[in-house]
Amino acid sequence: MATIVNTTEEEPILAVVRFTAELAWADAGLEVADPEVTRLCLEAQEHILAGRWLDMASLMLASADLLLTSPSRVPDKGTFLFLFLFHLVTKAGSEDQALQITDLICAKLTQQPDDKPALRLKVLFSLYNLLPSPYGKAFVYKKALELATAGKAAEYIIPSFKNIDSFVSEWGIGNLEQRELYLAITRILKDHKGMTKDYFKFLNKYLATFKGSDDDSATIGDAKEEAVAAIIEFVKSSNLFQCDLLNMPAVAQLEKDEKYQLVYELLKIFLTKRLDSYLEFQTANSALLKDYGLVHEECITKMRLMSLLDLSSHCSGEIPYSAITESLQINDDEVEQWIVKAIAFKILDCKVDQLNQTVIISRHTERIFGMPQWHGLRRKLGVWRGNIASAINTIQANKVTEEGTQAMHGLMIR
């Protein structure tokens, strides 16, 4: 329900100040309330006449806590006060002043995150939508993330994560700002049920901000815990069969790290080796797998599918059953079962030739899609373009021949 303020003939902004002051001090009694309301109105009048909108915002924020936290207040009155403060943002004489007012509002809203976090987030997003400055929008969104985390109100901000790519493009923020953003999002998603896939996605985004340059040398060590978390999430996932983690500097640093070297080795096995390598690793490091919550049987299942992909990438289009049984360590009668699993996960397109005991591969997922895979794709596209050009030339040549034959036929008739 909208809040209506009777401004009479008084300056509209001053009328709003009087209205909110009276509301804020309503429970204090007339002896206390009247002098405070009068004082606030006089100060507001001075600020209005001088155009000091930042001071005006500071004055109005004095009433914010009472309107937001007092149980006797009508909930939409607090929202109304902040909407009025947003109006001051639009009246600011410069972008810097508008950002200063925005900073004051955000500071007030995030002071007590446990108190009505949903309402506070609603107000922050209203401010976000009002601001024309990309920098201001990025600043407010960051504050909303902090509030959602501290106030344990993640469910109110998680839906916005699907638009992060467009947000980042709109804000034009740099690599370091993106890194902070993605890290904040991963911390929200980490313990949120049903968000494992998104958690892994934003871990990747965060880790990808480390380019391995000299600028990262002082901070890349801070990414070790997230790098380990990403590896474990990939190994644990039953439907992820491709990732670029191995080539990321933030992950590669683990290879020589005394504490996390084995975790990196595990990732390398899942992305570049076959089941026998995993079984050897598990025999020597079963305690490590348990410490990270990895289930041996589930790892075997995934490694069999990974081994099947490895076979597909090294074959000439056909894989004999014998190679599959040896690599996956299964019986002959289980081959088709694993082929069906791979097709169901959409990591393999193939046909089974039962008569000749072979699997004919038409497409397979690459476990790693780095520069070698890009070069391979480029070669395939080159061959495809050449075949298309050859087909077009053949069609044109046949067309010319046909037209010549028809012309000759016409002359003979004459």
UniProtKB/TrEMBL annotation:
It comes from the Eukaryota. PROSITE patterns: PCI. InterPro entries: COPS7/eIF3m, eIF3m, eIF3m_C_helix, PCI_dom, WH_DNA-bd_sf. Pfam families: eIF3m_C_helix, PCI. The keyword DNA damage does not apply. Its main location: cytoplasm. Transmembrane segments: none annotated. It is found in: Cytoplasm. Component of the eukaryotic translation initiation factor 3 (eIF-3) complex. Belongs to the CSN7/EIF3M family. CSN7 subfamily. Component of the eukaryotic translation initiation factor 3 (eIF-3) complex, which is involved in protein synthesis of a specialized repertoire of mRNAs and, together with other initiation factors, stimulates binding of mRNA and methionyl-tRNAi to the 40S ribosome. The eIF-3 complex specifically targets and initiates translation of a subset of mRNAs involved in cell proliferation. This is Eukaryotic translation initiation factor 3 subunit M.
